[in-house]
Amino acid sequence: MILNKTIKIGALFTALILMLTGFSINNKTLEKSQKNEDVLVTLILDKGGVNDGSFNESAWSGAEQASKELGIEVKYLESNTDADYVQNIETAIDLESDLIIGVGFNLSKAIEDAAKSYPNQQFAIVDGSFEEIPSNVTPIVFDEKEAGYLAGIVVAKTVQSDSNKFGFIGGFEVPAVINYRDGFEKGLLEVNPNATLLTQYANSFTDAAKGRVIAEQMSNEGVECIMTAAGGVNNGVYETCKEKSKYAVAVDMAQSYISPNTILTSAIKKVDVGVTETIKSYVDGNLKGGVNITYSMKNDGVDYEKTELLSDEKINYVESIKEALSK
User: Fold this and answer.
1) How many Å apart are CA 145 and CA 126, to the nearest integer?
2) Considering just the CA atoms, what is the radius of gyration of the chain in Å?
3) Cβ distance 154 to 263 under 8 Å?
4) pTM of the predicted model as reported, rounded to 2 decimal places
5) pLDDT of 166-222, one tens digit each?
6) CA nearest 197: which of 206, 207, 187, 205?
């Protein structure tokens, strides 16, 4: 009897401990969930709108994914002019945003100034460039040269050109755009040493008409394929390439769906992944300011699009190069 009573008391005690422990674990989970609901991340978009088919769209997709996974609140503020950058940052601060993410190199100065004015505010910026990174800013950067290089190899292996002329249209002559161009040229020349790359900048990320004009000029000069890294300008390039039966190469996101018979491939930088992972690091308390977070082929941060226009032979060739670069 005494033994049975001891066993019963021990069992009850164990059950009580398990119940209390379980309550503690569940309570901590609940507290974390409630804490996440209070987190606000605000994106300051560059010009071109949230559906630009480029940086803005990809970054917002990454923020939405983070919201879905973590239960946090995310917002975006669109910029129509350069003057909007500063005003939008001030608005994000007034909203009591926990993390403010600038989307694109053009926001670097505005983010840097805000970081100095608000040292307790945490910032991140896609493609940010600073001589000295502020301690409360985390730049999210990508190796565009690698993505452009893969696209260049795809084009040189696929496009037959008697003129050996290819084209590159950039929005502005900024580091990320220049990196795409340089990588693209390197890939072209590695396969076709006689290739010539004609380069022109639209000085816009929104003027599709300007993209049409430049693409027509390049087509008239014998260019058979144009890589375009110019946001909304790209739409005009795609239209002209389609009309002239030329190929185009997109950047940032997989975009062959826009014109499946025209866009040969896309040089992809996974901005969405970079934004999602940065937000996760912030929520987990692991986000470090003052240092770059760099995405390359080694951590699956850049890639190329495998479209229906590419044969298995071409894809296998590029994949072998990609594998070597990923090591």
Assistant:
1) 16
2) 25
3) no
4) 0.81
5) 999 999 998 899 999 999 999 999 999 999 999 999 999 889 999 999 999 999 999
6) 187
Nearest to residue 240, comparing CAs of 256, 255, 225? 225
Q: Which two tokens stand for residue 272?
A: 């969405």
Burial class (CB in 10 A: 0-12, 13-18, 19+), 64: middle
Phi, then psi, of 253 in degrees rounded to 5: -130, 160
Give the separation between CA 152 and CA 13, rounded to whole angstroms. 69
Cα–Cα dist 228/232, whole Å? 10
SS3 303: strand
Query: Which pLDDT belongs to residue 7?
Result: 38
CA 225 to centroid of chain Cα atoms: 24
CA 144 → CA 191, 233, 251, 321, distances in Å?
19, 19, 9, 16
Please determine, for residue 275, whether its predicted confidence score (pLDDT) is greater than 90: yes
Furthest CA-CA distance within the chain: 102
- Cβ(315)–Cβ(306) below 8 Å: yes
Token pair of 39 as six digits: 């987190």
Strands (E), the chain: 40-44, 73-77, 99-103, 122-126, 137-142, 165-170, 196-201, 225-229, 247-252, 263-269, 293-295, 302-304
Domains and CATH numbers, the chain: 39-142+272-296 (3.40.50.2300), 144-269+302-326 (3.40.50.2300)
Tally the C-alpha atoms within 13 A of residue 18's C-alpha that lie toward its C-beta. 6
One DSSP character per residue, 235-301 reads: HHHHHHHHHTT-EEEEEES--GGGSTTTEEEEEEE-HHHHHHHHHHHHHHT-PPSSS-EEE-GGGT-
C-alpha to C-alpha distance for 248 and 53, rounded to whole angstroms: 15
Sheet containing 263-269: order of strands: 196-201, 165-170, 225-229, 247-252, 263-269, 302-304
